Amino acid sequence: MKRLAKWRLLPLFAVMALLAGCGEPFLSALQPAGEVAQLQFDLMLLSTAIMVGVIVIVTVLFIIAITRFRRKSENEIPKQVEGSHKLEIIWTAIPILLVFVLAIPTVAATFKLADVSPMDEKNEDGKTDALVVNVRANLYWWEFEYPNEEIVTSQDLIVPTDEKVYFNLIASDVKHSFWIPSVGGKMDTNTENINRFWLNFDDAAADEAGRIFYGKCAELCGPSHALMDFKVKALPRAEFDQWVTDMKAVTEPVQAETAEAQAGQEVFNNSCIGCHAVTPANTTPEAARMGPNLTDFGNRTLVAGILENNEENIKKWLKDPEAIKPGNKMTGKYDLSDEEIDAVTEYLMGLKVQE
Amino acid sequence: MSTYAQKKGVGAVIWDYLTTVDHKKIAILYLIAGGFFFLLGGLEAMFIRIQLAIPNNNFVSAGLYNEILTMHGTTMIFLAAMPLLFAFMNAVMPLQIGARDVAFPFLNSLGFWLFFFGGIFLNLSWFLGGAPDAGWTSYASLSLASEGHGIDFYALGLQIAGFGTLIGGINFLVTIINMRAPGMTYMRMPLFTWSTFVASALILFAFPPLTIGVFFLTFDRMFGANFFDHTMGGNTIIWEHLFWIFGHPEVYILILPSFGIFSEIFATFSRKRLFGYSSMVFATVLIGFLGFMVWAHHMFTTGLGPIANAIFAVATMAIAVPTGIKIFNWIFTMWGGSIKFTTPMLYAVAFIPSFVMGGVTGVMLGAAAADYQYHDTYFVVAHFHYVIVGGVVFALLAGTHFYWPKMFGTMLNELLGKITFWLFLIGFHLTFFIQHFLGLIGMPRRIFTFLPGQGLETGNLISTIGAFLMAVATIVLLVNIVITSVKNVKVGNDPWGDGRTLEWALPSPPPFYNFKQLPLVRGLDPYWIEKMNGNKEMTPAEPIGDIHMPNNSFIPFMISLGLFIAAFGVMYRVDHAWGLPVLIAGLAITFGSMMVRSIKDDHGYHIHKEDLLEDEDKGVKA
């Protein structure tokens, strides 16, 4: 940016003033919170600056034309001009130059963002040194598997800050698209192939955003497409490591403590466990993981991705999921009485790997 | 043959329109049908904006919202914008090149009825179990998973309507190649004819991929094929490619004729020949060509890899160059001219900044790495509404006012026209400008609602207010049309006073044979040349002689009706035993009608020289 001539900086500053600071820090692509989003934001600024320049030139010519050449008398016949080679060459050549100015950083950035070579560099354990997350998109919920750490979680993506996190993306039913606006652009989760890309979560920006970024599904996937949100908890590396350790400590379902929760666990084991696991191990095959993994459910930011995580909302969700997320796959899979729902809620709220 | 001025009963008029092969009447049919679908699509847009006016709104349910957004896009593109452009192509292009009709009048009628029945079929889904709900792009994994018959209506309806468009495109191509009047060389053709020519070529190459894609979809859903089912060896990405290999040229099919309409308007109301005519033609052809090289920019996030993304990014940006040439040529057409701000000219003038804004965001979207942020957000929604409304719809509204006298012989009220213009212009920018920012701050497209607390409330409310202004503008236009039709004040050949091309040398509306004698074209803007030489009308290129005309035919209606019936059979064959017989019966009607057409000789008829002279004596202007 520094190399740009001074006069170019003027529209640039105008654009920055207009764009920066728009939206919420946890959601807005205009408040980049990581290397990828920053790169994309810079590219946006460069292209916007060029385009605002183009608009200004066109507008000035346009305004002169429509004000100076209004018809003054009904009888005037203007000179019939065929064209002008000089002018036509100018307005062909300058856009070509502008396109080059934009095309070069675009191509460079495109290749940079596609560089996932550390995902292929396996150490002697057959694992990667880089942190990898397998994202599996399902009708209205997200699963996050950490193949190196051999754990699975859902809905809340937990990542360490200030390092590159690599993603494998796939969908298990219909096509979705994985997008964390403030951290970086999206990539589709196709049904037939794994897409790969990386993101970097900036620690200072995460702190400013309250450690939570919003994630969205960006590809129309059915009635509840709008509600297929997820959350990203971006933690310093040490806290992330602690979370992994605590998750891995759960090797079998944790026994509930209170009597009501124990009753709830019983109900859960009879009605829910077919789809929802409460242990984080990734040993179960993907096809058998039919619902979100609930190991750390008590610490979830939100219920079903959209409601505040409290007792009332969990009950509401369990009672009539269809009213909250139309078209979801949980509706009608179980039949619980109000008491049973109360008990299950009690049990679920106690599922925490960390206090 | 002076039936032309006779009063006819309502029944006779309807029968006339059902069987007509006259390009001017088919144009009116396209205008009415396209206008109807435009209102329908607009109504759907209003439902969308009402639903999104406030967070957590429940004006429509989630599933219904998806049906509305799908039908809004599909209707506007396939059933409103394209047919309305076809209306102007049909009404004006043959006149501009000095032809008595299109090359294949029968096919012209067939094209219309196929489009019409396809569109009706698609919209009947609302009453028969629900409309398609996978977006106008109908991506394969979702469209295969979609329950009910919605997607079947989409696939079959578009198939039928698509045949109509393809037939129309071929017809226009042949017409322009073969039927130009003496002296009308390619490089003397008006820009609207040129853009019709290029758009028709695009139709010829772009619609077959759609046909194939939609056939695959039909077979996957209705006959158990697995083209897109990856668990059975299919692939959903193939659908994306097929759709966008059609879909990107499709936007040029819409925008190029719009450019053509504006080129005519700029030249007319600046009283100046189009600046840089040859480079305008060149740019039109180049845009058409490049239009086929950029489809994958709709798929930057699909995971095609950096090499494909980089190539398609640069190709996309390249389109800015010929488009820029056009913009500057329009400005310099006005430069040094004598500009009169009629309603059509207002649209043309407003089109420049509006379309430039849509164009530059197109280049921004072309920057692949940054597109990962824009893709599938309201930024994209804002972009394509800026080009399609700011470009195509402005052109359609401009064309409606500009060509209304040529099509109907009356002038739309200028005051009401200007009210429509201002309301529409302000409403348009109010609705869509803010959507750029909504997208950038994290609003994905195609969401039926949004939650509070994400900073999306204000922008959406402003957008909805703008949409209402556009709706009011449309109502004013309708009122204008009604008032004008009731008053029915007839106008002469060149009601704008500044007509340059051949159509303005003819009466409004022209006689059914257009030109009594084919005109001699002596340069670009032939009518203007004659006017400047002090002539009141074109110099004829031939003596008055018999004119050969085609007979009206009901067969195109029957062929299309047969396919319409067959489509129900295909769809319900899966659920009901009566499906198969209905399918066979429908196809029997279609092929039977084709057989009748093939076997029965129809040589048309001649308008005799004596009748033409008699018309002249009676004062029928020709």
Explain how this protein is built.
The complex is a heterodimer of chains A (355) and B (622). Chain A is α+β, with helices and mostly antiparallel strands. In chain A, the strands form three sheets. Chain A has a five-stranded mixed sheet. A five-stranded mixed sheet of chain A has the order 4-10-9-6-7. In chain A, strands 11-12 form a two-stranded antiparallel sheet. The longest helix of chain A has 34 residues. Chain A is built from nine helices and twelve strands. Among the domains of chain A are: 90 residues, no CATH class; 91 residues, Cupredoxins -  blue copper proteins (Immunoglobulin-like). The two termini of chain A are 46 Å apart. In chain A, strand 6 and strand 7 form a beta hairpin. A two-stranded antiparallel ribbon of chain B has the order 1-2. Chain B starts with 9 loop residues before the first helix and ends with a helix. Chain B is globular and about 75 Å long. Chain B has one domain: Cytochrome C Oxidase, Chain A (Up-down Bundle). Chain B is mainly α and 622 residues long. Classes of the chains: A alpha+beta (355), B mainly alpha (622).
The CATH topology of chain B comes to Cytochrome C Oxidase, Chain A
| Shape category of chain B | globular
Largest beta-sheet details of chain A: 5 strands, mixed
CATH C-level category of the domain at 259-349 in chain A: Mainly Beta
- Taking Cα atoms only, what radius of gyration of chain A do you get, to the nearest Å? 27 Å
Helix proportion range of chain A:
25-40%
Helix content of chain B: 55-70%
Chain pair with largest interface: A-B, 93 and 90 residues
Reading off the top of the CATH hierarchy, the class of chain B is best stated as: Mainly Alpha
CATH superfamily of chain B: Cytochrome c oxidase-like, subunit I domain
The largest β sheet of chain B comes out as: 2 strands, antiparallel
Q: Give the full name of the CATH homologous superfamily of the domain at 259-349 in chain A.
A: Cupredoxins -  blue copper proteins
Can you name the CATH architecture of chain B?
Up-down Bundle
Distance between the termini of chain A: 46 Å
Total helical elements of chain A: 9
Looking across the biggest beta sheet of chain B, what order are the strands in? 1-2
Summing up helix and strand content along with how strands pair, one would put the structural category of chain B as: mainly alpha
- Counting helices, strands and paired strands, the structural category of chain A is alpha+beta
